[in-house]
Give the backbone structure.
Amino acid sequence: MVLSNYQDSHGFSRQITPYEEEDWQRNKFEKENIKHGNVIAESGYSGSSEPLVDTLEKRHQTVTDLTKFYYKGDVIPPSTKSQILRALKFSVMYYYFMNATFFVYAFFIPATLPAPWYGGLDVREFYASPPHLVIMGVVLCIPLIRFLVMSWHVEFYQFVLILGGFEGSMLLFTALFWSHGLPVLVSLFVSNLINITVGQIYWKLHFEETVRALPTLVPPPASHVQDSTVLSVFSWKTLYEDFAKLWGFQRHRSPAMLYDERCGVFSTKDSMSHVQSMHCAYMQALDPFGRHAPWKRSPVDLWSLSWVGILDGLLNTFITNAAVCFAGLWLGKAMFEDFFHGGYAILCAVLIVCIFFVSLRRTTGLMEDALGVAVAEKEWLAHDVVHHTAQREEILFDAVDVMGTATSSKGRRVMPQDVMQKGRLNMVFMWLCVASTADFIGESYLAKLYWNLAHETRSMMEALTPYDFKLFPHAKWEVTFKSTLIKITQTLILTFTSCLYFGTYFRERPVPMPLVAFIGAACFIQSVVKLTEAIQFAFTILGAPHRTSVDDDVNNTTHRHMFVSEWIVLVALIFVFINILIWLYLLPIMKNWDLPVGKCKEPFNQVLFPSACLGKY
């Protein structure tokens, strides 16, 4: 391998390989020193995503080349080995596909079935004969029994086939013997919740299995040697080298050995290997109440990973699916049956569609950061594999995404927003992006694991490197504030839609009290959960003192404080609107009471809720 002399950003002369020279030339000004500073970027995702992807690809190619050169193999990150990031990517696609399916299917139901029940939800209307029930029992029990006896260690496609067969049969029998309207829609709801639950449990166990075997996935590398077998009898090109080796005048030295012979070099001062530290950190995240990692942490930082953690994700999924379905159903009713309140129906449908595309863009932006976790993991693990100490420090700088100085590689001063965009592509921030994405699509059980991984990764990096991840709550707010706002807005739309729909179209038939009660309770609980999520940042950001630099006094303000405070007020305002609709409108409509605000004698209430006010004025 041809080596070239190179003076790195620290002023030390060393020899590097050709594939390293280009990357080190590009980064020689950006990686001068590890800075203790704010590594959180500005709120939002501005600019093109291509530079971010290109950066991750170059980092991945660099660390892959290094590991293959020294290791004669490759290092597989645990997130890649367990495929949790790949599963998250397809879960996001599944989430948006199902929501679009719910909206379209609900939109066409009023075109084929009579109002207001659209097939009804009364189980007594299931008219299958005894022979049909026997056939249904056999068809449904076979995949159910196979699912119950199947191990969680089998390939994922087997779960897909079994659940697909069970849910497909359930949908078919529901459409044949009940109705293709609301009963099929409810069956799709149940199937979606089952799929989310099974997927979370499977991938969590798969990730845990990978983490337990992490030390064996990255064994210590062998010594870096080169074969010098003699094959030519007489060659001027190799004659001198063979003579020198024979007499012992020349001994092969690797770039790492040559570098270590220089006066000023990097040296490793870590107390434990990076493979061991990642194993401890990830095991601590998987077992929050155990004692696996030696570094300090707050006992309240980690989430418990009990199966109860699945419930809030299922609630999120139900609220989103119900809001989408109600918007589609109401729009279909206005288009195919009766345009009364059609303006409100169009408004709700437009809001739902806008939220759909806004959330899609936001989730895509987070996923671009989240998928870089594997790159940062590989850089961290490669630290134990690479022999060249300077190269180890270079890839470690990549793993923590060092911000460096406010000077670009071309020597010019960069804009403040450019500086703030640095520091995002470190393992901690990317795990936060993974957690936020999983939580948004309803995978709250996995999201809690990812939050734990972000906390433990931060503690690990701060314990083994000079790097400090400051303003951790600010980073968490940055990746979650939009999702909280989207979810509570969906809850408001669902509550508003339910009040108008059940207060308008049930003149001749009674309001379905169990359904209205379930929707109202779900909306109330969801509003409380989202308000709680918002209020926690009042303590962790607004009420927590911090130090912006080592020379500054402790203060309580940053550029985010105004945004956080206004965001909390907005979430609280939407919470108030939701509860006004639930307790002052939806509850009286369900109980057939007179409306408490203005009574039913008011023209405003008579126009908005004609069936609820029928006979009360």
In short: Strands lie at 4-7, 13-16.
